[in-house]
């Protein structure tokens, strides 16, 4: 007998929208095959039948997701994302030592699908414009003597391309620890999961016009 998934505990709930904290390893929408039907949207619809997806996080990424309640709210929130009126900030632990400083740095590198290796993405001049702001906030020593250092970084994607944060960080020599898609075996072995978390989400409520801001810290643990 299949056990029903646990009920979702919303970060925010009102008659128009929901904000949820997605765990790592859970799809946002159903995938192909019977084993990929359990997902955030399916769980939400069991509790809120009018819940509709607005944006997505990769299965391996944890963190804040907003869902609309009804088609009109879905359109309004989708427009806010498309017009870059939504504040999004992520946290990640990456390989290597990055310079810790107060100002933000920019990665401006167009992305496109790497068709022979789908679903992977790659940097290509012919790709879609893709921009990420990043700032290193602390250095983390290796767990064991001689192990490479890591860096805790803040990330703000100014565009919303698939795998953007993963590929952009990889392109500057600092892949995210635990990345099973873009990392080698050694990188994957340093963390029990992809160490990427959507920690902040802010936007103006399309109905009430209230400025909403949500924050959920990651529970990262770096292992040897």
Explain what this protein looks like in three dimensions:
This protein has 224 residues and is of the alpha+beta class. 15% of the residues lie in helices and 31% in strands. The protein is built from four helices and twelve strands. It has helices at residues 40-47, 71-82, 164-171, 185-189; strands at residues 12-13, 17-22, 51-53, 62-69, 87-95, 105-108, 111-113, 121-123, 131-140, 150-157, 196-204, 211-215. The strands form two sheets. Strands 1, 2, 3, 4, 5, 6, 9, 10, 11 and 12 form a ten-stranded mixed beta sheet that branches. Strand 1 (12-13) and strand 2 form a beta hairpin.
What is the gist of this entry?
15% of the residues lie in helices and 31% in strands.
**Sequence of secondary-structure elements:** EEHEEHEEEEEEHHEE
* Helical/strand content category: alpha+beta
What is the average of the pLDDT values?
92
Strand element count: 12
Rg from alpha-carbon coordinates: 18 Å
Low-confidence stretches: none
User: How far apart are the termini?
Assistant: 37 Å
Strand content: 25-35%
Shape: globular
Count of helix runs: 4
Query: Describe the biggest sheet?
Result: 10 strands, mixed
The helix fraction, in percent, is 10-25%
């Amino acid at each position: 007998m299949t056990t029903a998934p646990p009920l979702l505990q919303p970060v925010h709930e009102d008659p128009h929208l929901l904000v949820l904290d997605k765990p790592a390893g859970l799809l946002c929408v159903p995938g192909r095959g019977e084993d990929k039907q359990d997902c955030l949207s399916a769980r939400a619809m069991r509790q809120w039948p009018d819940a509709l997806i607005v944006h997505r996080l990769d299965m391996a990424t944890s963190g804040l997701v907003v869902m609309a309640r009804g088609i009109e709210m879905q359109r309004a929130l989708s427009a806010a994302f498309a017009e870059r009126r939504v504040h999004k900030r992520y946290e990640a632990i990456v390989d290597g030592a990055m310079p810790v400083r107060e100002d933000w740095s920019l990665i401006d590198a167009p992305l496109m699908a790497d068709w022979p290796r789908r679903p992977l993405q790659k940097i290509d001049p012919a790709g879609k414009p893709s921009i990420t702001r990043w700032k290193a906030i602390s250095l983390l020593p290796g767990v064991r003597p001689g192990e490479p250092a890591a860096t805790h970084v803040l990330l703000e994607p100014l565009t919303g391309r698939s795998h953007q944060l993963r590929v952009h960080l990889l392109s500057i020599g600092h892949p995210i620890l635990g990345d099973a898609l873009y990392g080698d075996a050694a990188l994957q072995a340093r963390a029990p999961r992809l160490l990427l978390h959507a920690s902040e989400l802010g936007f103006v409520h399309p109905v009430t016009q209230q400025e909403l801001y949500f924050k959920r810290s990651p529970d990262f643990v770096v292992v040897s």
